[in-house]
Write a structure and sequence with these properties.
five-stranded parallel beta sheet, 43% helix, Arc Repressor Mutant, subunit A, alpha/beta, 2 domains, 221 residues
């Protein structure tokens, strides 16, 4: 069963979706606006999000854009409007499906099931790296040190997992910045250095696995 986040400023819509979702055996969390949804996504893990477009605080498109910076969780957009522009804008942001209000709750549940089945087919093999007491579950995005869960920022996870997937390879600073932050990153090398420092602190005694290559960059051994 799935953990669903329902984001809509209309209480009755949230209650209606919750009723049908829980009847199907799913668990449901709620957000009354886009800002609340973004904050919940930063602290919780969801299997799928049902998001309204027109909301106070932060609209659905803006919330989706924020969530997509750190997560590829499937998103279904809800809207009382059916304009082609909304659909195109949503799909360009990475929305998985689009439902126009008023909608059938049963149809929404079927769409959720269809999206989750497609997502499951795209999931890669479970990736886990274990080195002594360090365990990095790349699929679940979790890291434990001597059995204790380590909390990292999304970018720390991205940086660490990229280095793991390219272990024993010398990674230049430019390569790391491009692959982890993107081609349109306007920061400087200090951003990378700061995240390496935070990452080493999170790894404790296993920080030695991240090797500094003077004048080049870093390597994960």
């Amino acid at each position: 069963m799935y953990n669903i986040l329902v984001c809509d400023d209309e209480l009755m819509i949230r209650k209606l979706i919750r009723k049908y979702a829980e009847f199907e055996g799913h668990s449901v969390d709620e957000a009354a606006n886009g800002m609340e949804a973004v904050l919940k996504c930063r602290h919780n893990s969801y299997d799928i999000i049902v998001m309204d477009i027109m909301m106070p605080e932060l609209d659905g498109f803006s919330a989706c854009r924020e969530i997509r910076q750190d997560s590829d969780v499937p998103i279904i957009m809800l809207s009382a409007r059916g304009e082609e522009y909304d659909r195109i804008n949503g799909f360009e942001l990475g929305v998985d499906d689009y439902v126009v209000k008023p909608f059938s709750p049963k149809e929404l549940m079927l769409r959720i099931e269809a999206i989750m089945k497609r997502s499951a087919k795209k999931q890669p093999a479970h990736e886990i790296l274990e080195i002594e007491g360090l365990c990095a579950d790349l699929t679940a995005r979790t890291v434990t040190v001597d059995g204790v869960r380590v909390d990292m920022s999304p970018k720390e996870y991205d940086l660490f997992f990229y280095m793991i997937r390219n272990r024993n390879i010398a990674l230049t600073r430019e390569k790391l910045i491009t692959e982890v932050w993107g081609y349109d990153f306007y920061g400087d090398d200090r951003t990378l250095d700061t995240h390496i420092k935070l990452l080493r602190k999170s790894l404790g005694k296993y920080s030695k696995l991240i090797v500094t290559l003077r004048g080049v960059g870093y390597r994960f051994d």
